[in-house]
Write a structure and sequence with these properties.
Elements: H1 3-20, H2 25-32, H3 38-56, H4 71-85, H5 89-97, H6 103-127, H7 134-148
Helix pairs in contact: 1-5, 5-6
């Protein structure tokens, strides 16, 4: 993909995030506190559209990644960070584009978290219990059931 297409798509994506309210801290907090379902609805529509798009057209360069042992913990950490800061990586950049300088704290956290993962991620994943490894999960569950019988 050319740099111009990436820049244009990113700008359009940021615009949609901004216009939908997904880059507004108060709306995100209200979503997590179950006071306003608007942003949750935007997320559900985005997921459905992406699913339809990838189901109808899957370019050869998009590969389905296997489950990783740290997906659950990474997802939980992502959710906690999102709830605390009111932003995720995409909306942090949209907030910065809107002139909300508090997004810089989130962006610094994203960069530091990525650097930390590159440094220690493999050793952390190696220490996770076998049950979190996709290839071993079924066998481990079966063994535990047999042992408890």
């Amino acid at each position: 993909m050319s740099a111009l297409r990436v820049f244009l798509f990113g700008g359009l994506f940021g615009f949609v995030l901004s216009r939908s309210g997904a880059s507004d801290y108060d709306r995100i907090v209200d979503m997590f506190l179950l006071r306003d379902p608007h942003v949750a609805g935007v997320i559900v529509v985005a997921i459905a559209l992406a699913w339809l798009g990838f189901t109808a057209w899957r370019p050869a360069w998009i590969k389905v990644k296997p489950k990783q042992p740290g997906n659950l913990w990474g997802g939980l950490l992502f959710g906690v960070g999102w709830a605390l800061t009111g932003t995720c990586p995409g909306t942090a950049l949209a907030q910065l584009g809107e002139g909300k300088l508090t997004a810089l704290a989130t962006i610094v956290g994203i960069v530091l978290g990525t650097a930390l993962y590159q440094r220690v991620g493999a050793s952390v994943q190696a220490r996770l219990p076998n049950v979190w490894r996709a290839e071993n999960a079924k066998a481990e569950v079966a063994e535990r059931r047999a042992a408890s019988s």
